[in-house]
Specification:
- By secondary structure, the chain is of the alpha+beta class.
- Helices cover 31% and strands 27% of the residues.
- Helix 1 packs across helix 9 and helix 2 runs antiparallel to helix 3.
- The chain is globular and about 60 Å long.
- The relative contact order is 0.16.
Length: 305
């Protein structure tokens, strides 16, 4: 990619730390950076020349797009990313990879198929035998997660089998899909966020749940500190991102008695926690990747699949 490129950041809020940092880092390198709200884009999808319109004007394709697509707008946000791909714009994370990672069940199935370590996990909607589903993951204490939850929401720690049955019944009453997972007690309420760019972990932090809480998300009051990860953890994080097809990813890992296990692969990982904990220029690392690999028409999926 040329020294000075036109970069589009898809973000609903330009005031967010991650969006601000991506603008600052891009402009500091001489790029022209524009923040676009994906929900305000509308598209001509039948033309031989695909177009995206924004505020009454045709939006130039740009050299590269950095999707910051929140979970609540995955469907429309990935449609906008796909339209950019069809226009030949290089996308840091492709639409198919974002959709794949957002589907918790699909992502865990893909990781499992490739031999990535995972907590023992069950999946249900309206099980005929709650006890059998509970025993699949070794019984209580166990974690029960809504399939659609983010940032630790919709995640419950059931400390007894009776409590697990009650939660499953409640989720069933909501007509919700859910995962059951073994509780990794030896992790002590801590997990590791590995920030992957390309084929490297460019920063890692340990997140510790606050007293009386088992979810380590910083959004939920958890603390974060830099940590030196093992070669096995590094390899696991890079492989997990690659399996999802993501060039930029936050891979959450727990240290279990049977090695590192992946909890989730995030396609729009926040920069504030990781930059604050490590002091590293993570936003700059994303631009280094774009400058090295960004090329018009290079998107593998080209909007298909």
């Amino acid at each position: 990619m040329s020294d000075a490129a036109n970069i589009i950041i898809l973000s609903r809020n330009r005031k967010l730390y991650s969006t601000r940092r991506l603008v600052e880092a891009g402009e500091a390198r001489g790029h022209t950076v524009r923040v676009i709200d994906p929900l305000r884009c509308y598209m001509n999808i039948t033309s031989n020349r695909p177009e995206i319109h924004y505020k009454g004007e045709v939006l130039p394709a740009g050299d590269a797009v950095i999707p910051r697509i929140g979970a609540s707008i995955t469907f429309y946000g990935t449609a906008v990313v796909r339209q950019f791909e069809m226009m030949g714009t290089f996308s840091v994370n492709e639409s198919v990879a974002i959709s794949r990672s957002r589907d918790k069940l699909r992502s865990l199935q893909l990781l499992s198929r490739k031999g990535i370590g995972l907590p023992v996990t069950g999946f249900g909607y309206s099980p005929d035998d709650n006890q059998d589903l509970i025993s699949l993951v070794g019984g209580a204490p166990m974690v029960i997660k809504l399939l659609e939850g983010t940032q630790g929401k919709g995640v419950v720690l059931a400390e007894t089998n009776k409590a697990a049955e009650s939660v499953i019944d409640a989720f069933r009453g909501l007509r919700a899909f859910f995962l059951t997972q073994e509780f990794i007690k030896e992790a002590g309420g801590a997990d590791i966020r590995c920030f992957v760019v390309g084929d490297k972990v460019v920063g890692s932090m340990m997140r510790q749940a606050k007293e009386g809480e088992f979810r380590s998300n910083v959004h939920r009051g958890g603390s974060a500190r830099p940590i030196r990860i093992t070669p096995e953890e590094r390899s696991t994080a890079v492989r997990a991102a690659k399996i999802m097809g993501l060039n930029v990813a936050g891979v959450d890992i727990m240290r279990s008695n049977h090695g590192p296990v992946v909890l989730e692969v995030n396609s729009s990982p926040g920069l504030e926690g990781i930059e604050g904990a490590t002091g590293k220029d993570i936003a700059g690392a994303i631009y280094t990747f774009i400058e090295k690999h960004g090329k018009a028409g290079k998107t593998r999926t080209r909007g298909t699949g």
